[in-house]
Each structure stands twice: as structure tokens, then as C-alpha cells.
Amino acid sequence: MKYTSIYWAVMTPFVRKIMIKKYGRKTAGEYVKKAKPIYREMLEQSDDIGAKNPMASNIYMAFVFMAIWRAANGAVTPDDMREITRELLGMELIRRLMGGMDVNKEKDMNKLKNMLHKNAKWIEEHHEYRDKSWDFNFDETPNVNGVSYHFTRCPLCNYARVHGYMEILPVMCEMDFLTAKLYHARLYREHTLADGGDMCDYLFVGDQE
Question: Residue 140's pLDDT band (boundaries 50, 70, 90)?
Fold first, then answer.
């Protein structure tokens, strides 16, 4: 993947602030400092799915957490990182930046659907990245009052298997549930590739359903 510093620059101050409470300012700073070259290396090693791919942000963001976890060399456990991600996505500023939709409203549910279909269309139209990116498979069942789809291919999972990040990968998958809350949604899921399933499935419905 093409290296960009924007996700690192935006996210790490928030992550470091959370980590200081548990590890102290010096140790938290050391972990983040050690993680920066790891983050760059991870992007260089990762399959290129296209920097302009609307799904690329998933890699850029997840690698921030994964690199810090690796830099800590066991001192930050997956459960620790799980708490860090929960606190991060619970911050008011982050909620404002990443939220803004209430899928209990029909117009916002349609907005979410359109965004997902737009992401899928970009991947389908860029053949050079299609076999390495996520593959959208939508369930258009009429009686589903929400949006349902699944992936059978995930570049994050592929990278984690090859480079030894499977221990931390489920924490990244669980962030989907945290993101759903920002949309006033519930996510129902039965399978993930990270847990050995043959797909990652998603069913988003409004949290008032």
C-alpha cells in the first residue's frame, strides 16, 4: 500500500492519550515511537488495494493499532487494545467525526446502503485491485429492514495470517460493532474470517428495531 502519514498523525495523539493512563507518559510515548517505522513497513508489505480505494481507510486505520501492539512486544495485550479501541471510539470528538448518521431514519439507512454500494462499485471498476480487495456480496432480501452483505476476501486477514498478527486481528473485527453504534445501528454477525469462518457477514439494522 502507498504510505501516507495522515491516519497516523490524526489517530496516534488520541491513542497515546488513552495509553498514558495505563502505561504512563514515557512508556506510552516509547510504544508509539517504536510503532511508527513498523506502521510504514506494514504498509509496504501489504497488498496494494489502491490508495484511492474507499475501503483503504480500513487498512490505514487498523494498522495503527496493530503496529502499536507489535511495538509493545506483549506488554499491550489484545484485551488491552480492545479497551483502547472502545475508549477511542467513545470519545466525543471521534463520535462527531465518524458519526453523523442515524440509520433508524430511512434517509440515513439509504445513505449507508448507497455508500456501501459505491464502495463495491469502485472495486469492481478497478480490475487491477479487485482480487486483492474486499469482495462485496449483498443480500437484497426484501424483508430485511437494514443492509446485509458479506465478504469472502479480506486483505487485513490475509496480511495478518502471513505476518503474524492473527492474535490482534479479532480486535480489529470487533471495531465494526463500535462503528455501528456511531450510526445508531446494531450489527448482527455470525462469522468472521479471523475466527476461521468462510466469510465476514454483516447485518446492520437501526438500534430501535
Answer: confident
Distance CA 57, CA 191 (A): 22
Q: Cell numbers for 129, please give them.
A: 485491485
pTM of the predicted structure, to 2 decimals? 0.94
**Tens of pLDDT along 147-180?**
999 999 999 999 999 999 999 999 999 999 999 9
Residue whose C-alpha cell reads 462527531 in the numeric block: 96
CA–CA separation, 122 and 124 (whole Å): 6
Taking the CA atoms of 102, 108, 113 and 115 in sequence, report the sign of the dihedral they define: negative
Torsion of CA 171, 174, 176, 178, to 10 degrees: -100
Q: Is the pLDDT of residue 98 over 90?
A: no
Look-up: residue for cell 476476501? Answer: 153
Of 203, 200, 152, 178, nearest to 65 by C-alpha is: 178
pLDDT tens digits, one per residue of 178-188: 999 999 999 99
Nearest alpha-carbon partner for 119 in 90, 151, 91: 151
CB 120 within 8 A of CB 130: no
Asked if 204 contacts 103 with a C-beta cutoff of 8 angstroms, the reply is yes
